[in-house]
Amino acid sequence: MLSYNSIQGGSRRYENRSLETICSNYKRALKVEYNIQDLIIFIEAILKNEPERIGLFLALGILYNHIGDDELSKENIEMYLKYVSDPYKAKEALKKRGFVNSIAA
Question: Directed axis angle between helix 55-67 and helix 36-49, to 10°?
Answer without folding.
Answer: 150
